[in-house]
Write a structure and sequence with these properties.
The chain is α/β, with parallel strands linked by helices. It is 40% helix and 13% strand. Helix 4 (100-110) runs parallel beside helix 5. Bound molecules: pyridoxal-5'-phosphate.
Length: 414
């Protein structure tokens, strides 16, 4: 059977192959330290689970509205209005089976073939995949290391704008870098959006995964509510990744268009779990608080230990559960200067599993610094400690075995 031509344009999350390799390593009898997972190994809060079970037993097992149950849409509009100073009603909210489907549906609803779409690179790989799959032109913008944080390269973003640029995808707070836009960057972004009449997909999957300060949103700025569509997810805040529940929140015609796509795709999101999510938003908040407390401990341990490894420099993001340490020198020390050989050798030698910059978009011209991504949402404190002790040992110790000759000859060892 011949696959359709469009399938050649569909990308994927190559991070899934890292998971497969880590599983194979585990099945071969080795210990694995899973820093590659964007998944959460903390249970969903009890009250959320109970509400979903009650709803299931209470008969919420048939189809529901393609837009989601009105109670949840209303609760979400209120929740977002409180944190974002917006003016949404339930008519602006469409419930989706996860945050991820919002990306493709947003593009289907708003992007015409040939439109240019600005997207973050390094960034969540599904943006690039979906833009190209649906016939758009993916134009990357990037970040650079600032003083203790990653900064948006706004000059680069402005230079990339053409008269064909219609859409900006902004992931604030960002996977994989843990970056967040500063107030100044957000103001300048809003000004660019207004000046160029852009439409924005504002991916706020990590808006509530915050340890210090308060998350701010582009949509709160003047003129942005009518130009932005928010990607909301229950996955992270309520540790519900496998439940598959999220939402698109935006101008009413866009919400209606996405609702129509729902009718054509999945009909509706799972009915009874929407009652669990409703309890998540309206009920006791100690569950999400405990999740954050645990994640914060993991962040601090990870950052401290990573910064104790020679040749590693790691920021301490105030949000998300990702770290994006600069490992240029550490890689040079080991003589493993190619991302994949470094990653695979570390997995083989220590069991420490992580993604690299390569899993978050095609490297950009002139990129010389090397980064890897550590997720600490799927690994407990004792394993973080042990895994990073082994990684430190690997970086500081003598040459790992089976090094290829050309690399060995150029290895600068410490
Ligand atoms: N957006 C970003 C930046 C993500 O990292 C993820 C998941 O890892 C998602 C969206 C989608 O998550 P979900 O489909 O579980 O809501």
């Amino acid at each position: 059977m011949q696959l359709a031509h469009r399938m050649t344009r569909l990308g994927t999350e190559t991070a899934f192959s890292v998971s497969a390799e880590a599983n194979a390593h585990r099945q071969a009898g080795h210990r694995v330290f899973p820093f590659h997972l964007g998944d959460i190994n903390i249970p969903t809060p009890e009250n959320v689970m109970e509400a979903a079970i009650r709803a299931m037993k209470g008969g919420k097992t048939g189809y529901c509205s393609n837009l989601g149950i009105p109670e949840l849409r209303e609760a979400l509009a209120e929740d977002v209005n409180r944190s974002h100073a917006t003016h949404y009603t339930l008519e602006n909210v469409v419930i989706e089976p996860g945050g991820k489907p919002v990306i493709g549906k947003f593009l289907l609803a708003l992007m015409n073939p040939g439109d240019q779409v600005l997207y973050p690179n390094p960034g969540y790989p599904i943006y690039e995949s979906q833009i190209e799959f649906h016939g758009g032109v993916a134009v990357p913008y990037s970040y650079r290391e600032g003083d203790g944080v990653f900064e948006l390269d706004l000059d680069g973003l402005e230079r990339a704008l053409t008269d064909k640029t219609r859409i900006l995808i902004l992931n604030d707070l960002q996977n994989p870098m843990g970056a967040e836009a500063s107030a100044h960057e957000r103001e300048r972004l809003a000004e660019i959006v207004r000046r160029h009449h852009l439409i924005v997909l504002l991916d706020e999957a990590y808006f509530d995964i915050r340890y210090e300060g308060r998350s701010q949103s582009l949509v709160s700025l003047a003129g942005m509510e009518e130009r932005c569509v928010l990607l909301y997810t229950f996955s992270k805040k309520f540790a519900m990744t496998g439940w598959r529940l999220g939402a698109a929140i935006g101008p009413r015609p866009v919400a209606e268009a996405i609702g129509k796509l729902n009718v054509n795709d999945e009909s509706c999101s799972n009915h009874f779990i929407q009652y669990g999510a409703l309890e998540g938003l309206r009920g006791d908040q100690s569950g999400p608080r405990r999740i954050l407390e645990e994640l914060k401990k993991r962040r601090d341990l990870c950052v401290d230990l990573l910064n104790g490894i020679p040749g590693v420099r790691c920021f301490r993001p105030r949000a998300t559960f990702y770290l994006f340490p600069n490992v240029t020198e550490a890689m040079a020390r080991t003589g493993l200067t190619q991302y994949e050989e470094f990653r695979k050798t570390v997995l083989r030698e220590t069991g420490v599993s992580f993604c690299s910059r390569l899993h978050f978009g095609r490297p950009l011209p002139g990129e010389v610094q090397k980064y890897i991504r550590f997720a600490y949402s799927g690994i407990d404190l004792p394993d973080i400690e042990e895994g990073l002790r082994l990684l430190k040992g690997f970086v500081t110790s003598s040459a790992p075995p089976k090094r290829t000759a050309p690399l060995a000859s150029t290895a600068a060892r410490g």
